[in-house]
Amino acid sequence: MKNYFFLAFLLLLTNYTIDLSAQDRKETMFLSGTDNENTATWDFYCTSGRKSGVWSKIEVPSHWEQQGFGEYDYGRDYRTYGKKFKFADETGIYKHSFTIPENWKDKDIFIVFDGSMTDTEVKVNGELAGPIHQGSFYQFRYNISDKLKAGENELEVTVHKNSANASVNRAERYADYWIFGGIFRPVYLEAFPKEAYIERVAIAAKADGSFSMDAFPVNAQKKQSIYAEIIDADGKVVKTCETKISPKDSLVTLSCQVDNPATWTAETPNRYSVKVSLKEGNTTKYELKEKFGFRTIEIHQGDGIYVNGVKIKIKGINRHVFWPETGRCSNARIDLDDVKLMKEMNLNAVRCAHYPPDKSFLNICDSLGLYVLDELAGWQNAYDTESGSKLVREMVIHDVNHPSIIFWSNGNEGGTNKELDDDFDIYDPSKRPVIHAHHKPGNDFNGIDCNHYENYYSTKKILEDKLIYMPTEFLHAQDDGGGAASLADFWELHWNSKLGAGGFIWNFSDEGIVRTDLDNAIDVNRVNAPDGVLGPHREKEGSYYALRQIYSPVKIDLKKLPSDFDGTIAVENRFHFTNLNECKFTWELVNFVQPEVREAGHKVMASGTATAPDVAPVAKGELKLNLPSDYKKYDGLYLRAFDQHGNELYCWSWKTNGNRKEVLKLVEKSLGEDEKALLEELKAQGVEEDNILPIEQQKGDDSGLSSKVELTENNEQVILKASGIAVTFSKKDGTIQTVTNDFGLPIPFGNGPVLVSGNAELAGVSHHEAEGAQVLEMTYSGDIKKLSWTMYTSGWLELNYEYQVADKQLFTGITFSFPESDIISAKWLGDGPAHVWKNRLQGGQLDVYQRLYNTIMPATNSWGDQFKGYYADVTWMEFNTVDGKFTVVAQEPDLFVRLFSFYGISGPENYPQLPAGDISFLDGIPPIGTKLAMGISNDTWNLGPSGELNVMEKPVSRTLYFYFGLR
């Protein structure tokens, strides 16, 4: 039992100090715990699998697999692979004793189950409470007043993991997710006054202030009425309405008008409360309170989706209710954290896949602002009409008053029973639209096509037709693919199309379960469940960062600061309801730490705020930063935007002077005229001389640095040596063969440079001296136009090269070998913290990062900051190895650095293929595909322009500096 006695005490204290002093309210008593962290211990017997055949104890709520009982099964194994489920005969029997309060003897008492998997038979004191409930994700209840007795009562619950209803199994069990058993949501008693009460209410409140409410009285008496007070967020009663009822009434409707209500949207989640009273004269016989929001949802055929008269675009994601240690048994803290993460990614919508969620999740979506698609279960197979009609009723009456829900979804990907389409309106007075979430064309409903996993060009074709297009799944995020890969292309397509309504990415987090039968290893069922842009415990992956930028409602496209930058930045407002003058903008001028500093990161040198511009929703304008005139003396500029609630939307970052400043700070070499001029400019801008390291400024007579560079050669090799560093080059192919220094072990960096694509063959080697440095010229036939190495007296080695490769290429650039076994860590100045792909470059922030070597890969059951990958816009990178450190500095921007062997999507052949070598310096990197529709081969062009392979329209010239000594 976990925290239960204390929690139960608090709950009882709350109930009995509030509810018992007011007999006109519902009273609640929990029989189970309230969530996965606060549970109650019941007696339990499992019929098969682990720990079966004996009476034991179990925590409730929970899945019995996570308590060590039964067996694990993944749903689609049955359908896809023809496996027989282990749980076919798995049944759990629960027993629990309870005593009701003495003052409940004259009340209507219900036992309520918020969720049980799946067929659930309930007995109280040996009597059936009612029909066996079939369906896992829905609240159900029985009136057990006539079955209770004074003193101790016995509850027995039999839960069959497999349903006796074949359609329930097809809809819920044979699905693409983990299948569990047990009472996984709370169980509690509700007590109502027997003489008269209001069972529930269903609210329809529109943006124009019209308020309508269906109330369901029970045991109504003569001369009674229902009275409603509408209360705003400040506690002020803004309207009242009343209607009389008769003893035969089981449904009455109240209506009134509120002037100028604060409306609910995902950007402005304004909520009201309604206090509903059953009165007899001036006496209140019963009372309840419900929160709601004023908002109107409309589908304009052939146009779009409108909220409160404004056309919106959905920035959505799919979410399972899931936590690795406890499966679908969750808690409000997890729900809150998930909604916060969605808001951080600048999402405005969530699809509850593939079943209705916990009540707390919907409450949080209401309060923080997310549009919700609430879905009836049915993964590629539908409930039959008899069972489905009951479950639609249970879902809708449970969720109807949440303003965040703007759509009902009648099943997923063929799991739609069309005979149920009309049932939703029966219980929903606001008449929310119903959609069909399908994976095949031609299943549109209510004017919306939700077809799944179309590629960019088929999406474009759909958007040129007549239907609104809102894919309820797209860009399947298995491993490191999909998610935000090519999302910018898709989003621009939807944003700029009349019929584009946005869509829902698959999926929020990897569905990895802690296997209690496998030493608590996390299992994602190979390629089936690592589908998230977050890890199982919500570890942030690359798509998380890219989503933040792509979906930022403040859109800034400035890639680099122009040389004449005056602080003016073009900005687009992609809010639907918010003027940018309601937002906040701040700027920071920063200096980045250098490689020799132990810590990573930056130091803020100056900061300020910018006046938020007056830019209406979906309009464009300008943002003016009042930067100091000497802003270029600092390394970088950060710009942060915050919404009207104070939440950071995104941080943009730029270098103030390209890479030149960093080169001068780091690279010790003889100065040419250009470098001398820049050195004087940096000094004039206030850069401290200690941070500028040209050899003339640093070398003294006792420095130990060479006065000249030594060059030796034979028929096979050329060796350059200075300041204790020696580099040997092959005359056969022009590659580095060995690197040694006087400070430690040889550094096994070499076998390069070679092109990662294209061909080049060494034609000749020559050398000459230039101001004390030695220059090694290499000529090639093929795709390398020119290449030279220069060693300076400081030991720094400069590589200049120019190349051009024809045709489309996965990657372009040069590569070297280095044993992965020797790497300890890397530290770099560039975009981070995540690695990138050609079609997922967004989301990086310029900074200094450092990371220990690790072998974390997608879908390896290990989650964290992946070390290996492609890193963007690297200015310098320091490699810490068992052989010593070495540093590489880039003179030009936009360099990608590839670190070692990795993959994006696992499969028979991991995808995409890698360049040769181990450490590569690249100008072009591969795009990443997705699991579905586009496959896992090189056909990523289907994802849109950014999914195309690399084409070099002109030669690329680069200068890299290498240092293999101590600093």
TrEMBL record:
Where do the Glycoside hydrolase family 2 catalytic domain residues begin and end? 303-517
What superkingdom does the record give?
Bacteria
Give GO cellular component annotations, separated by semicolons: beta-galactosidase complex
Molecular-function GO terms, alphabetical: beta-galactosidase activity; carbohydrate binding
Which UniProt keyword terms apply here? Calcium, Glycosidase, Hydrolase, Signal
Q: Which ranges carry the Glycosyl hydrolases family 2 sugar binding domain?
A: 56-191
Query: What EC number(s) does its UniProt record assign?
Result: 3.2.1.23
Its UniProt entry gives the catalysed reaction(s) as: Hydrolysis of terminal non-reducing beta-D-galactose residues in beta-D-galactosides
Q: What enzyme class is recorded for this protein?
A: hydrolase
Glycoside hydrolase family 2 immunoglobulin-like beta-sandwich domain: residues covered? 198-295
Q: Does the keyword Hydrolase apply?
A: yes
Q: Does the keyword Signal apply?
A: yes
- Signal peptide start-end: 1-22
What does the sequence similarity comment in the record state about its family?
Belongs to the glycosyl hydrolase 2 family.
- Which protein, by its recorded name, is this? Beta-galactosidase
Annotated source species: Mangrovibacterium diazotrophicum
Which classification does the entry list for the species?
A: Bacteria, Pseudomonadati, Bacteroidota, Bacteroidia, Marinilabiliales
